[in-house]
Amino acid sequence: MVLVLKKGYDQKQLDNLIGWLKGLGVDTHLSEGRYQTILGLVGDTSAVDIELVKSMDIVETAKRIQEPYKNANRKFHPDDTVIDIGGIKLGGGHFQLIAGPCSVESEEQIITVAREVQKAGAKLLRGGAFKPRTSPYAFQGLRAHGLELLLEAKKATGMPIVTEIMEASHIPLFEDVDVIQVGARNMQNFELLKELGHLDKPILLKRGLANTLQELLMSAEYIMAGGNQKVILCERGIRTFETATRNTLDLSAVAMLHEMSHLPVVVDPSHATGISRLVRPMAMAAAAAGADGLMIEVHNDPTHALCDGAQSLTPDAFAQVSEDVQKILPIVGKRMDG
Ligand code: PEP
Ligand code: MN
Fold first, then answer.
1. pLDDT tens by residue, 54-106
2. Which ranges of 84-189 does DSSP label H, i.e. alpha helix?
3. How far is the CA of 194 from the centre of ligand 2 (A)?
4. Which ligand is nearest to the Cα of residue 182, counting in written order?
5. What is the pLDDT of residues 201-243, one digit of tens each?
6. What domains, with CATH codes, occur in the chain?
7. Cβ of residue 104 lying under 6 Å from some atom of ligand 1
8. If you take atom 10 of ligand 1, which residue's CA is the nearest one?
9. What is the gyration radius of the CA atoms in the chain, in angstroms?
10. For a 10 Å CB count at each end of the chain, is N or C smaller?
C-alpha cells in the first residue's frame, strides 16, 4: 500500500501514523519528493483498513498495490490447485460434472437421478437438503432426512455428494458429506465461513448475487485462513438490470478468477439462466472459457419438481450436454477423468 501525504503535513501526525502502523506489524518508507511525499507500507498490510487510512487528516490518497487475499492469490501459489474428492480430481486440467436435482425430494427420486447422471458422465451428485428459499412458504427441503437420502444415493452409486449448508450449528450433520456447498446467499456469512475453515473437507463456494470477484476471493480467504485450503469457486450468475434470464452469467469471471487465483472454478448455468433450454449453450461456453467443472440441475420429472423445475434438465438433455461439453474439453486442455 502507498499513501500520498497532504502538502504541509504535520510531523507529529506522521509520527502517530507510523507508530500506529508499526503496531499492526507494518514498516514504512518515507519518500519526500519535490511536489509530493509518499509513505510506502512494507510487509503484510492485510490488517490495515484502507478506508480508515484515507480518512486521516494528513492522507491525500491511499492505494493498495497488493491484493488483500493471500491464501487464494495466484501470485503466491502459481500452480493450479487440484481438489481430491474421494479420488475424483477437480482443477488443474481435471474437469468434472456435478449434477442432480435442486432439492432431494424422495429416496426414489434421488437414486433415479443419481443413476441417470452417473451414466451420462457426472462423477459428483448434487442435491439440496437445506434449501435457502426466497419465500418462507416455499418447500424448505427435507433437511436432515434429505441428507440421509443423499447418503443412500451415495451408497447405491458410489458418487460423492455435494450439498448446501446454511448454518454452522449444522456442521455435525454434514460429517459424511463429501463437498459442502455455501450458497450465494451465504457467501458473506463470515461466521459460517470461519467454521468451515476448521474442517478438512472441500467447500464449494458460490458467488453472491451482487458480489465482486475480489469479495468472492475474500470469502474464500476466510475459509483458507482457518486452515482449510480445499475451496472450489462457483460462478452462478449475478444480478444485473436484465430480466429475461434469472441472473446474468458472468463468464469473464472464469478467466479472470483463473488469473487472480489458483483455486478451481466451476460454473452453474442452471441458476445463472433459470431456463433449461439455455443450460446447454451456457455449459458449452463455460467449458470453452476454461471452467474446471459444471454444476447442473437435473430432475427425472422437471414439471413436477418441488424446486427450480424450469431450469432443470431431463436426464436425456443432461446426457446431451455432457456429450457436447466433452467435445470442447480437449481444446482447452482439460479431461473428464476419474
Ligand atoms: C443451489 O445450488 O441449490 C442454490 C440454491 O444455488 P445458489 O446459492 O447459487 O442460488
Ligand atoms: Mn436450485
1. 999 999 999 998 888 989 999 989 999 999 999 999 999 999 999 999 999 99
2. 107-119, 143-157
3. 25
4. 1
5. 999 999 999 999 999 999 999 999 999 999 999 999 999 999 9
6. 2-63 (3.30.70.1140), 83-332 (3.20.20.70)
7. no
8. 184
9. 23
10. C
